[in-house]
Amino acid sequence: MPTRREWREPLVRRLIDDHGGQNPEAIIERYAERLRQQAGQHALPVDPAVIASYLGVRRRRADYSFAGRILAEPNGQLVMDINQQDSLERQRFTEAHEMIHPAFPGFESELRYRLDASMERYAENREEEYLCDLGAAALLMPAELVAERYTVKAGMSDVERLHRDAQVSIEAAANRMVALSDEPAVMICMTVSHKPADRPALRKGLDVPRRLRVRYALASHLNVYVPRFKGADDGSVFCEAAVSSGVCSGTTTLPGAEHAGLFRVQAKRYGSDDRERVLAIARPTA
Ligand SMILES: [Zn+2]
């Protein structure tokens, strides 16, 4: 599990205080686990609808401009709105995400809408949303049913198996598998894009080529930092995967983290058009 040192949002600080100063990631993981157990969901795929009904949350589906939200009505009734235009996978993850929000003390009295406008994984500085994504992953891919059964050793084939069994996106499956790994591993998500420093030139109308760049990376049991927007080297296994349809494997350094040494990498391209990305699982050779 990735751990952080400092949490700033008031609601997150209250959660920590209410749990005697424990790490909120562990608090949320336990909350999700309890919810799942109490709702009697003991096999994959976990059904968020059953959990919602256990919690007494009323679900509404319609066309919305956001992915989902949960709110407490003045009488205390929790209502969850889910965008029915999203893929079923995405709706499941959104539902699971929304069901974590009530874990935060004071949630019901706040009566504020929580909008999730995009499916992108929340940055860690959006603390409550980040923790709800973590809880959603824990709900849909419980450690008890995933750890040791789906492993980074098996690489992308286990990511795809978890994606099918848990009915979550490939990306969510890869994130969770690395988070639960009992050995050092890195998950890298890359897209063909510009970097922020390209913007002035783009505004001037210059033709700046796009490159395969790091969107984000997650590491387990490993102190390695793969910088955002770092480009992958031409001819690397990452670039090879960007133009292939299958899994590409190789032993290489990670973009911007050459000092961390060599990794066994499996990379594969998923999605299409603006949702196209290369996902990679990397394990250190030493
Ligand atoms: Zn949210």
Keywords:
286 residues; alpha+beta; Beta-Lactamase; five-stranded antiparallel sheet; three-stranded mixed sheet; binds zinc ion
Describe, in plain words, how this protein is organized in 3D.
- The structure is a single chain.
- The protein is α+β, with helices and mostly antiparallel strands.
- It has two domains: 10-140, Arc Repressor Mutant, subunit A; 147-284, 2-Layer Sandwich (Beta-Lactamase), CATH 3.30.450.
- The chain is 34% helix and 20% strand.
- The protein has helices at residues 10-18, 24-38, 48-55, 88-98, 107-110, 127-140, 143-146, 156-166, 170-179, 199-203, 237-242, and strands spanning 58-62, 68-72, 78-83, 185-193, 211-220, 248-252, 263-270, 277-284.
- It has a five-stranded antiparallel β-sheet. A three-stranded mixed β-sheet has the order 1-3-2.
- β7 (263-270) and β8 (277-284) form a beta hairpin.
- The longest helix is centred in the N-terminal third of the chain and has 15 residues, at 24-38.
- It is globular, with a radius of gyration of 20 Å.
- The structure holds zinc ion.
- Zinc ion binds at residues 97, 101, 114, 116, 129, 132.
